[in-house]
Amino acid sequence: MRWLVGWSSAAAGATGPGSAGSLGYDGETLHPVGSQLLWGDPDPLWAVGDWRPDEVRVVKADEQNRIAVLGICGASDEELRRGLFTARGGALRHLTSWPGSYTAVVQVGRRITVCGDLAGARPVFHTPWAGGTAYATAALPLADLIEANLDFGHLAALLAAPDVPAALRDTTPYEGVRRIPPGHALVLRAGAREIAGYDPVSSLAVSAPPADPDRAVDAVRDALVEAVRTRLSAPRHVPDLDPGPVPGMGPAERRARRGMPVPGIGADLSGGPASATLALLAAGLPGRPGTLLGHGTGERLLAVTFNDLAVGGREAEVQRAGALAADPRLHHVVVTGGEETLPYADLDGPLTDEPGPSLVTAGRHRARLAAGSADHFTGHGARQVLDAHPARLADLLMDRRRRHLVRPVAALARADGSVLVPARVYGAARRLARTPYRAGLEALAERLMRRRFEEPRGAVGASLAALTWAAPGPAARWLTGEALAEVSVLLEGEADRSGTGAQRPGDHRARAALARYAADLRVLEQSAEVRSQRLHAPFLDNQVVRACRELPEALRVQPGARAAVLRTVLDGTGITDLPPGWGTPSHASSAAAARAGLRLSADPLLDLFASPLLADAGLVEARVVRKALRAAASGGSTVDGLADLVSLELWLHRLLSRRGTCWTGTPARSRAVPAGIQPRRDALASGA
Description:
By secondary structure, the protein is α+β, with helices and mostly antiparallel strands. Helices cover 38% and strands 15% of the residues. It contains 25 helices and 19 strands.
């Protein structure tokens, strides 16, 4: 993990444990373990982890005015200096408008500003501490600092309604540690904190002006090209040297076995449009993708395709990936995976900052990434930023653009084969357009209280289920009545003080889905991390997200819109030779791989839930979960939601079994959840 951490004290002359140069407990200096100090008292800032030298930049105007940028940022030092001067007046948006993926921290006197990103892939957390406020880009260090216990209300909401911001609010798994919403910044003034938004949200007050589709797609192309070029322009990094030959293994096999990526730049090439677009852009832009230190022979870009031999259904995608890899600028590597790479097969892994469903598939991704490059492009996030959430149909009705519903509704009717589909979809979209946000939260609260979890069937059922302000998560059906009641009461309270009723339902649902996906991707990066490797997801860059949000809704909702937009992006960069069927949606379901993994790993999973920590927390009953696991492994029940339960149980075990802490100089090496989980049967009495 890589993170930054700092704090803002209440007084400039603070001499307590909140000062970087002061002595902590037992005569030790209080500072994060394995850190480098970026600036010191009275408001210190550290970078922690294996940051590359070019990923940490500090530009100073003087000792009281400076900016730190951590990550991949395309701004020059002069642009950072101008941004610092502009931020002195309180402007924030420009700090998030440079290409790349980064976190910016600005110090102007005693005012500290920390900017989060639009997607939520680079979050910011904060907590009260030592009379001021501590902040970090990871929640666990702050939880260690204050010895936070688990927030059971947050864990219940994470299972009951993971895509509902009103349920999750600004909480984290750690009690007392708060999260900054995407699109916001944390502003600290002498320890006092303020949350400020820097990006506008579409409103019901004024209808959105019609956008030019061609100009919007051109903006997406420019943002993507600049995001890729920024990474190609960064210095190349060579992983640790290969210690020597191993009998029977070649260099690539040795690197994979030792967890060492290939030097240079590479990309996923799954056969889908998102990864193919990034691979072709990275290989086609000037800059010699595989060249070390920007000069030399110019190796080809390494394109990695994962071929699942245990579960079929993606043969056409693998063939398209092979056709794309025929480009002489690409060096194609196919990684095959058997039963050992199925979901749930590998339950060992590192502790991540937060739990996420991707913990059960981390081993599957690690097998692919181990054959990748030191800098590896992925197409993660393209679906969330380009595709239309079904709730956007209601947005079109609110803008009186009914004719744009014809094609998406006709596609659903063809998939279902029923002539009643158009009327059902139109009716659901119309109801959503006329339903206030508060009523949507109250309806979800009632569903949870009454345990109404209807199973949507097919594409039409899923679309109809999504045409609501808020919906229960797939794991909600296995929660105890007390846990569901706790989340229900929380939602009713949020409905009473709701202030987001002016937001459009489709835009609201799309932003929430993006934030949830970005949070899980962050968990995946930490759990499947390969030493000396960096994963790049340009689709989640601020400028790319902004450009994608400007795409007209009428364009988004059309069938095949994502592939059409990306094809136009490639056409604009001179890449036109695409294989037949490029962009065709895959009919292979990840549920098949999940079911196969459950069948293979049924015994270890049943052992995991023999005496689960989730039951001690009062969230589930062990008997109910074991019954669901057996049914899913035998093919007689749905697998949706089981990944959420298993991953949260795994995460709790890893958290409680850790021995270290993120700090030195704290009493008895303070760490999060010091007393473990005490059996809890009164969920409602715990408070939210």
